[in-house]
Amino acid sequence: MAELPDKRGAFFDWYLEVIEAAQLTDKRYPVKGLNVWTPYGFRARRQLDAVLVREIEATKSEPVEFPALIPETEFRKEGDHIKGFDAQVYWVTRGGSTPLDVPLVLRPTSETAMYPIFALWVRSHQDLPLNVYQIVNTFRYETKTTRPFLRVREIHFFEEHTCQIDDAAASARVASNLAAFEKMAHAFDLPFLAVRRPEWDKFPGAHYTIALDIPLGEGRTLQIGSIHHYRENFSRPYGIQYEDRDGTQRFAHQTTFGLSERLVGAIVATHGDAQGVVFPSEIAPYSVVIIPVLSAKSTADPRPVAAEVAERLTAAGCRVHLDDGEGRPGAKYYYWETRGVPLRIEIGGREATERFVTVASRLGEKERVDLATLEIDIGRALERFDATLRVKAHEAYLQAFELALTLETVRKREKIYLISWCGQEACGHEVENAVDGALLGVLEGEPPIPVPDLPGCVACGRDGGTRWAAAGRPI
Ligand code: ZN
Q1: Looking at residues 284-294, what average pLDDT do you find?
Q2: Residues 25, 136: one domain?
Q3: Which structural domain, as residue segments, surrounds residue 236?
Q4: Are strands 36-37 and 62-63 parallel, antiparallel or unpaired?
């Protein structure tokens, strides 16, 4: 088998080949940037969506689904939002051969689809908060190089939209979303950076934007999602108003929380290695693969035991694949390693006779498990696998950062730099020029690596009022 490109030296070559080898997507669809979810990729996506649904519903959010087509008249109601998306939307202008009276936009995101209806749903303070989410496909006409999961034109997308009673309640919802994402990221074994984007880089129409960024190595970052506080920026043009307790009409304060299929790319990029993809156990299309090993030397047939193990582990809640097809065991081991299955269970003649199995983790650990304690021991092996994966990911995460007390350090362009910033836009742009990328934003929460007391601004030297911010190169 051909060796994969080096993950560190040739990241994007490595990334594309790993995705290809694991068959997570098929890029041969005859429209650039519209990719096919293969059965294996779809299974991973379904697992991932289940985590998002579980964690967002735990914060009292309700599922909805709005239409994919938005009338131009609604789409154009909020000025900044339109400026941000106008160049990226697909238009539907004909029904059959008849031109439509009102052209339709294929949703790039769903504010303008949902908010005319929110205006009907929200009448009184008793209707608040309104927290709803949907998981749908959105469409953006990307002009940059497309890459599977990282930059596509049809995007699998999670979006929560809420209406709150006031600014403080909306800020609390933003905090609740960030806490929910921490739980999601734990299930993905995925360390991330939360930053408040600078004014010049926030979401079109937002009061402020908290972005969720993943390091990709060598200073590169991937934005996998964001949380926005809209204040009344959308509720005013869309008329989302409620009657307060004292009888006055007020506009709702709104928030949104979006995550895209970039999460799949982030999981591949964070955990993958020289052998291929590595899936956290909760996201893996199969958490366990069972391989009966037939041998001429042994008279015992391992296949009935393999079937028993498959049945018992399925009943215990594992996603099991029994690979009892043609082919040599070595080739099967390689195949499932490339695809990132957390645990492989090997069952040969000796195992069948003595009633045990050999368990090999995707991270290289091997152990013997008696059939008597199969379910408990496999459960523990999966927990250990995730714990190890999490530690490895966290170590790599820490390596992605460097403290920069001067712009000279930032100009090395090798890491994500933690800098002290006074908040002035001119200084921000100076940092962006130095890193040849972006001022990602002011950190939400503690810095990922040890830092001294806040020094003066890295650009202008001004003391007082500085904050820790991160600078890197978003892809
Ligand atoms: Zn400054």
Answers
A1: 96
A2: yes
A3: 11-271
A4: unpaired
